[in-house]
Design goal:
heterodimer; A: Jelly Rolls; Jelly Rolls; nine-stranded mixed beta sheet; four-stranded antiparallel beta sheet; 12% helix; disordered N terminus; B: alpha+beta
Chain lengths: 362, 369
């Protein structure tokens, strides 16, 4: 305990009297960022598709009261690159729907988390998050809407389940898919969905919460034969908010077709670790899907050109099977005849994941 | 992190001292809720302590200037210590108003004693983590429990000493603690464990002032790892020291807060990249010298420069933008990790974070060379 001269304290006493009502009492603040001004716009854009009320994440981050108790966890998740889940080493390739934080966003979040997490001016408080409009699809009315024929129940005693079912398209003629979208029936338990055609070896699309509709690049499509069936694989997982209660889900798939059949068709190539694939003819790569059984440290695909030069197609850092994703290239990459696609994995436990390549013939 | 909070408070103070804010003197003191036992806890609202669940009490905190080694000094403005003439550095302290006659009467605002009606007098007391400056010319780290602190010194050839402190940087009697000085160890990949090949016990002096190990003579710099256990049956925490010179008790390393300068952001992207590379030289020096607790200053400067450079990414050649974005984000990330690990004095983690930092700086430099 240090006693100070009284004179030094005159200004402080005056100040202290002003504190009879702690109107602006707060944790010592050393950050210039506030939730309302700086943090909410980032959370809304980069985290809010899951971390919202009724979302698949166990906590909403879209109001100050919901977000600030998690400040330490948020800082750790962001600095460990665990959140938001994107995994792409951006030095390699260019992909659509970039999910990573920018340097400024990351810095703002960490600074706010460590610096007292102030709320800021309530007058500039963000609007309450809107609930999803259950009846609308971002791409407009689909050509074919396929709902699950039954409601799946994740019972009170289960916290996680994987459900596979087959949806009959009932198409009378071959059609070419232009885009695909997915809408969870109960957004609080659907962690991911994978849609495959036929025997299940060709994934049409994957869905994780917050993902935009999957639109094939212009002039490219996926042949859906008459009478085709679409296999839907759903990963359900409860947060603690739903522990002990049964939750049902009836999700819906939306398909959009090309008007004409004069488009290049996509096929899927599966390349496993240790088994490189040599291209028999020229093709273009439009998307990549890592197919993982377990989390790994790193997973990558390289293109070895006929002259021996090597070009990285994608490098994923600590990807997880919990976040299946189709990585769409910003621009298609040419795979010349005679070139070789190789995939490599780094993992502490033995793992032989496959990389699926969506390609079109040239 | 703690060091960074102190620096942040300094930045806050500079804002207070700026002319525009000079009228708003009340920013100098803030009301917070804290736990009477766990003074680290500061909350914006009433409630219970996250550690002991005890009820939080309200307290008033203010900024003051103190001496790195004479903690009794508390001044309202920067200057020199009246005892030793060292530069003062910024701290926060708690303010209470107490009755001179009835010590049980304590208030967070001025007034009079309800028993004897005497005017209450203000007094200040320390808050935790305000002074992370070495007290004996060594290197000062914080334990992972955020409560214990430790200073290692190399006062003479072959002698390694460890002083222990509480979260107020007050000396602790070391007799309650166990530790050893590790000079050589290998990492066994099969068992994923570190095996010590050469270690000496850290023994308490009879008066409990410090732990000491005689580690034999060798050329400078000396690298020593202290492994200290703070809780009975707890794990041993590691602290990595590199002594470039013999520690001299009288020569206290300049307190961290006073060397924090105002960051000037160059106008051109290439200028910013150069400024980042300059910070990297400084960070590398500190990492190499084992001066981990000081790293955050240059590291956080570099990440602020990186955030500024991000505004210029669109001016970079199109094919370099993706990797520039990646590098800028990695720089921000690794700078915060260096800040965190530097406080803890964990060499392995600091080196890991520095590898990321250096890789990011190199990638940025390659865009602008």
């Amino acid at each position: 305990m240090k006693l100070l001269g009284r004179a030094a304290f005159i200004p402080l006493i005056v100040v202290a009297l002003g504190f009879a009502v702690p109107v602006w009492a707060h944790k010592p603040t050393v950050t210039t960022f506030t939730y309302n001004k700086d943090i909410h716009p980032i959370f809304d854009a980069k985290c809010g598709s899951c971390h919202r009320s009724g979302g698949v994440a166990p906590m909403s981050l879209l109001t100050y009261r919901e977000a600030f108790p998690w400040a330490v966890s948020i800082k750790n998740e962001v600095l460990n690159l665990a959140m938001p889940p994107w995994f792409v080493d951006e030095r390699v390739g260019a992909f659509k729907h970039r999910g990573a934080l920018s340097a400024k966003e990351m810095d703002t979040i960490v600074d706010w988390c460590l610096g007292g997490s102030p709320e800021g001016d309530p007058a500039t408080s963000p609007p309450s998050p809107l609930s999803d409009d259950a009846d609308s699809w971002p791409l407009g009315s689909p050509d074919l809407e396929l709902a699950m024929p039954f409601a799946f129940e994740l019972d009170a005693d289960s916290s996680e389940a994987v459900e596979e079912l087959v949806l009959a398209t009932g198409l009378g003629a071959d059609r070419t898919l232009r885009a695909i979208d997915f809408k969870p029936g109960s957004a609080n338990i659907v962690r991911s969905a994978t849609m495959t055609l036929g025997d299940g070896s060709e994934p049409l699309a994957t869905w994780v919460p917050g993902q935009a509709p999957q639109v094939f690049p212009s002039g490219i499509g996926w042949r859906v034969p008459a009478g085709a069936e679409i296999r839907l694989r759903l990963h359900y997982k409860k947060t603690w908010l739903d522990e002990g209660s049964a939750v049902t889900d009836q999700s819906t798939l939306a398909l959009y077709f090309h008007e004409s059949d004069a488009v290049k068709l996509v096929t899927t190539l599966s390349v496993k670790v240790g088994s490189p694939h040599t291209m028999g003819k020229d093709a273009e790569l439009v998307a990549l899907v890592p197919e993982l059984e377990t989390p790994v440290d790193a997973f990558s695909a390289d293109l070895v050109l006929p002259d021996g030069s090597r070009e990285a197609l994608i490098r994923l850092y600590q990807p997880s099977p919990d976040w299946p994703r189709k990585y769409w290239l910003a621009e298609p990459v040419r795979l010349p005849s005679g070139s070789r696609v190789e995939v490599r994995v780094t993992a502490s436990e033995p793992a032989t994941p496959a990389m699926l390549l969506d390609i079109v013939s040239r | 992190m703690i060091a960074r909070v102190v620096a942040g408070l300094l930045i806050g103070m500079l804002c207070v001292l700026s002319p525009s804010a000079a009228q708003e003197n009340e920013i100098e003191a803030q009301l917070v809720w804290t736990c009477p036992v766990h003074r680290d806890v500061t909350e914006s609202e009433a409630g219970n302590c996250e550690f002991c669940e005890g009820e939080l009490i309200q307290t008033l905190v203010q900024q003051a200037w103190s001496c790195p080694i004479h903690s009794v000094i508390s001044e309202r403005a920067p200057g020199k210590c009246p005892i030793c003439a060292r530069d003062l550095f910024l701290i926060t302290e708690e303010v209470t108003f107490a009755c001179p006659m009835h010590p049980e009467v304590s208030a967070i605002a001025s007034g009079s004693c309800p028993i004897c009606n005497m005017a209450l007098e203000p007094s200040t007391s320390s808050r935790p983590h305000q002074n992370h400056n070495p007290q004996h010319g060594g290197m000062f780290f914080m334990a992972p429990d955020n409560w214990h602190h430790l200073e290692g010194t190399y006062p003479e050839e072959g002698v390694f000493r460890v002083y222990l402190y509480n979260n107020f940087s007050e000396p602790l009697n070391v007799k309650a603690f166990k530790g050893r000085a590790v000079l050589k160890e290998v990492f066994d990949k099969d068992t994923k464990r570190t095996r010590e090949l050469l270690a000496y016990p850290l023994l308490a002096t009879s008066d409990g002032t410090y732990l000491e190990a005689h580690i034999g003579s060798s050329d400078l710099p000396r690298e020593v790892t202290a492994k200290v256990r703070f809780e009975r049956n707890g794990d041993f925490d590691r602290f990595d020291f590199i002594f470039a010179d013999i520690s001299v008790d009288a020569e206290i390393i300049a307190p961290t807060a006073t060397v924090l300068g105002e960051l000037v952001i160059p106008e051109s992207p290439a200028g910013i990249a150069t400024a980042i590379a300059e910070r990297n030289v400084r960070v590398r020096e500190l990492v190499t010298a084992g001066n981990f607790a000081q790293i955050y200053l240059a590291a956080l400067d570099a990440k602020n420069l990186a955030v500024a450079l991000e505004r210029h990414v669109e001016e970079a050649p199109a094919e370099r933008r993706a990797s520039l974005n990646w590098a800028l984000r990695q720089l921000v990330r690794s700078a915060w990790l260096l800040d965190d690990y530097g406080d803890l004095g964990n060499k392995e983690k600091v080196y890991m974070a520095y590898d990321l930092f250096d890789e990011a700086v190199e990638a940025i430099r390659s865009v602008y060379e």
